[in-house]
Design goal:
Distance between the termini: 39 Å
Number of helices: 11
Low-confidence stretches: none
Number of domains: 2
Strand content: 25-35%
Structural class: alpha+beta
Helix content: 40-55%
């Protein structure tokens, strides 16, 4: 089963060398890029699917900063190479390449719905929603190198080879273990009310999982499981729905542009807003508003 990764980026100072090398397996897409970097190159990235960014090779210096906000909060700096980052779905990141002239990197895009069905178990919402920026792990790097080599292979091996490598990396990333499988109890009514009210009040910005967990006095993993047991959805999905409901009110109450409504509702731009709105509601914002006014 295939899927198309949905990603937006605004970059400067990068030049792709030789084009994209892509392989697709069941629920995972792997891209290998060779990129020439100008001094102080950088970019802003937003993906609808969780992904890993893995630096396989770099020339020049080794300094790269990854931020979770444009003003520098949540910044992580890497002074070694190579490095790995896991970015959850819907999380905005900013990257600054300080003194690197060339990068070969592997991007892995994960479809959690497909992978959950394949693995026949619910994925840990806490791990899926928790970013891991610029870390180092030799096992991941060994798997990533083999995956990248298969993407670049002019005579690819059997699909099960690459499929096995990527699924193995994903299982390790999510620390899936049958012995850990257990059902969580739902949140207490006061915990759920506090979390939902907080999400609704702050839905227009990125809410960190640890913020919500601290409101309930629970660990991030425990909170994620309990929230899903209470609502049937992960916290980030609830926030997406809250943004959509806010956008609906704005659509009906004023004549503001879709760009302005997108910004006020917490979406990165009009295209992102329209895509998510269509996915959740089943139609575009403009058509939805027209149907309500007719």
């Amino acid at each position: 089963m295939s899927f198309q990764p949905r990603m937006q980026n605004k970059i400067s100072g990068f030049k792709v060398l030789g084009g994209l090398n892509r392989r697709e397996w069941n629920g995972i897409i792997a891209d290998v890029w060779d990129v020439e970097c100008e001094a102080r190159a950088g970019g802003h990235y937003l993906s609808d699917d969780p992904r890993m960014f893995i630096v396989l090779e770099a020339k020049g210096g080794a300094r790269c900063n990854v931020r979770l906000s444009p003003d520098g909060r949540g910044s992580v700096q890497n002074d070694r190479q190579p490095a790995l980052s896991y970015i959850p779905a819907g999380m905005e990141v900013w990257a600054d390449v300080v003194d690197i002239s060339y990068i070969r990197h592997l991007d892995l895009h994960f479809n959690l719905e497909i992978l959950s069905r394949r693995l026949m178990e619910d994925l840990d919402a806490g791990r899926c929603d928790t970013p891991r920026l610029m870390f180092h792990d030799e096992r991941f790097l060994q798997l990533a190198s083999l995956i990248a080599a298969e993407c670049l292979n002019p005579q690819p091996l059997h699909d099960l080879y690459g499929d096995g490598l990527t699924v193995a990396l994903f299982i390790d990333l999510m620390k899936l273990n049958r012995s850990d499988a257990r059902k969580r109890s739902p949140l207490a009514s006061w915990q759920l009310r506090r979390a939902v009210e907080y999400i609704d009040e702050h839905s227009s910005r990125n809410i960190r999982l640890e913020e919500l967990a601290s409101l309930s006095g629970l660990s991030q993993s425990h909170f994620s499981h309990a929230f899903k047991a209470s609502t049937g959805m992960a916290p980030h999905q609830w926030q997406t729905n809250a943004r959509i409901e806010k956008s609906k009110m704005l659509l009906m109450k004023n004549e503001a542009s879709l760009t302005a409504i997108a910004a006020e509702s917490g979406f990165s731009d009009q295209a992102h807003f329209t895509r998510v709105f269509r996915k959740v509601v089943g139609t575009t914002p403009a058509l939805w508003k027209r149907s309500r006014l007719s």
